[in-house]
């Protein structure tokens, strides 16, 4: 029986979820909770290798075009490893796990962005992840216009700022990001119990406060 609590963060590139994840981790730790954070893809030694293949825009120079189904399968290989190596042990130990992206990202990016369809992603999730679901998903979804603007801005910054080149997704166009946005909307409508969508374009501090309200209302008293 799982003792901890599993929270995922979702949103488009540049939605601010990584900053919010860090802030939530700090605040939960200050309340005395044990917190484990990770990102997908990545987080394990195997996952970090998969990440560099998937995100480096130069990968395809040496590997050839990565087929959408291969991309999907690699995302799930990464996820299976982090469930096994990090997420389940942390939950068993009573930690609150904060994960930057999870299967909703595969449904949005591969299912909708790459047009593989949701059902294929959901059945892969059942097969490869034993259908492990987050207890709560915080979906940062500012308006479509501002999401596209942020994704583009992110795109321009990425290659200059990050040590490694992680621009393979960021070079995609507005139609790709619009499909992703709509898929996130559909996931939130389908699973309102699990997914808390935060839609406003408010500042970082206000969104942080909203997240803390949502999380403290949801974490059961039994979580150490
Ligand atoms: P990352 O630099 O972590 O982006 P962000 O900070 O926006 O989360 O890169 C992760 C990229 O990988 C992002 O563009 C989304 C993509 N991705 C998928 O396409 N499918 C997935 O299942 C996951 C987990 C990520």
Please tell me about this protein's structure.
- The chain has 224 residues and is an alpha/beta fold.
- It has helices at 17-30, 45-55, 59-63, 68-92, 103-113, 118-128, 144-161, 174-190, 204-218, and strands at 5-11, 35-39, 96-100, 136-140, 195-198.
- The chain has a five-stranded parallel β-sheet, with helices on both faces.
- The protein has a single domain (5-218), classed as P-loop containing nucleotide triphosphate hydrolases (Rossmann fold).
- It has nine helices and five strands.
- The longest helix is centred in the middle third of the chain and has 25 residues, at 68-92.
- The site of thymidine-5'-diphosphate (TYD) has 15 residues, from helix 5.
Q: Could you name the key traits of this structure?
A:
5-stranded parallel sheet, 224 residues, Rossmann fold, 57% helix, binds thymidine-5'-diphosphate, alpha/beta
